[in-house]
Amino acid sequence: MPVAIITGASKGLGRALAEGLAARGWDLVLDARGADALKEAAEAVAGRGRGRVEALAGDVTDAGHRSALVAAARGLGGVDLLVNNASALGAEPLVRLAELPVAGLRRALEVNVVAALGLVQQALPLLRESPAGAVVTVSSDAAAEAYETWGGYGASKSALDQLAAVLGAEEPGLRVWAVDPGDMATDLYAAAVPDDDDPRPAPSGVVPAFLRLLDERPASGRYAAPALVEGR
Predict the structure, then answer these.
(1) Contact 79, 133 (CB under 8 A)
(2) How far apart are the C-alpha atoms of 67 and 12, rounded to whole Å?
(3) How do strand 134-138 and strand 81-84 relate by DSSP bridges?
(4) Rounded Cα–Cα distance for residues 192 and 44 (Å)
(5) Could you tell me the pTM of the whole model?
(6) How far is residue 78's CA from residue 133's CA, in Å, rounded to a whole number?
(7) Which of 5, 9, 19, 151 could be stapled to 30 by a disulfide with Cβ–Cβ 3.0 to 4.6 Å?
(8) Which of 147, 153, 189, 223 is flagged as catalytic?
(9) What is the 3-state secondary structure (H, E, C) of 52-86?
(10) Has residue 232 got a pLDDT over 90?
(11) Of 137-141, 199-203, 219-223, which gets the smallest average pLDDT?
């Protein structure tokens, strides 16, 4: 069966995507910082399918942890899909750029950009060996639009989009998709804007967009999940 590495998989979109792939029989390597939450998620994901599930708690900014994720995937047979989903906001709640701690911006860049590239680099040999190797980077509309208080996070996602675009050009044998999932009810959003009580869709609602990419394998590029779900 195909093998996927998913970072930030203990909750939100990462967990929902893991459940969707498990239902299709994928073998999975799941990452998150919180060991207890990751263990609970991995057990739930494993119950969705017949595939094997490896859960490795750790911080993606740690090169040793990234190596362990790739080694676990190699033990399952390789890497067919890498999903860089782990994200850091830079400040919780979000603040205007005039107040954004430089250390917070540095953390967002380390998690959202530097660690994502580091994991891609370590997984590339296995991805190239796969008959259908793919990389998904989870983007945001804040990468392309100027929203007040979203500057640091948006800048990191914009940088991630550019890395994905260049990787797609440099690795024509792979598919590299940057995906903007749209609004979702996640802990990340709640931490970013805690006073926003407007209802938002569950992450599971955008999983079909990611599965469509895997099924149809369109050209590398940036995609909006709502449009993919609606068939556009």
Answers:
(1) yes
(2) 24
(3) parallel
(4) 27
(5) 0.97
(6) 10
(7) 9
(8) 153
(9) CEEEEECCCCCHHHHHHHHHHHHHHCCCCEEEECC
(10) no
(11) 199-203
Both structure tokens of 134: 């793919």
Q: Which residue from 55, 64, 62, 112 is spatially nearest to 88, judged by alpha carbons?
A: 112
100-124 average pLDDT score: 98
Please name every residue paired with 5 in a beta bridge, in sequence order, or none if there are none: 29, 82
Residue 147 annotated to the active site:
no
Task: Show the tokens assigned to 68.
Answer: 């362990």
End-to-end alpha-carbon separation of the chain, Å?
29
* Length, in residues, of the chain: 232
Which two three-digit tokens encode residue 120? 């891609």
HEC profile of the chain: CCEEEECCCCCHHHHHHHHHHHHCCCEEEEEECCHHHHHHHHHHHHCCCCCCEEEEECCCCCHHHHHHHHHHHHHHCCCCEEEECCCCCCCCCCCCHHHCCHHHHHHHHHHHHHHHHHHHHHHHHHHHHCCCCEEEEECCHHHCCCCCCCHHHHHHHHHHHHHHHHHHHHCCCCEEEEEECCCCCCHHHHHHCCCCCCCCCCHHHHHHHHHHHHHHCCCCEEEEHHHHHCCC
Question: Tens digits of per-residue pLDDT, 60-101?
Answer: 999 999 999 999 999 999 999 999 999 999 999 999 999 999
